[in-house]
Amino acid sequence: MAEWVSLCALEELPDGQREVFGVSGRWIAVFNVSGKVYAIEDLCTHDGNVLAFDRADRPSQLRGFEIECPRHGGRFDIRNGKATRSPAEIDVPWFQVRIQNGQIEILV
Ligand code: FES
Q1: What are the structural domain ranges in the chain?
Q2: What is the CATH number of domain 4-107?
Q3: Residue 47 near ligand 1, beta carbon < 6 Å
């Protein structure tokens, strides 16, 4: 059964920031874009690279709502997980987000 899991305080993830959290054996990338928070699995469906940061721990390119995989350039919409640019063809899992008592929570 799905449950809401608290990740951090909203104030710890200001506008324009991202963070990766380990939840139930998965890595979840969480983004604050203009005060709204989005969450996707931090695992590219093309060949298993992480999405939110590159190997040097620099933030990957976020173009509007599209995160670009630092490995081959596939893109995903962080609002719904849709694969939007080749070589990514399969959508990435995304998670419902809510703010509860100032905490960012996702439904897993
Ligand atoms: S591993 Fe992400 S586009 Fe290839």
Answers
A1: 4-107
A2: 2.102.10.10
A3: yes
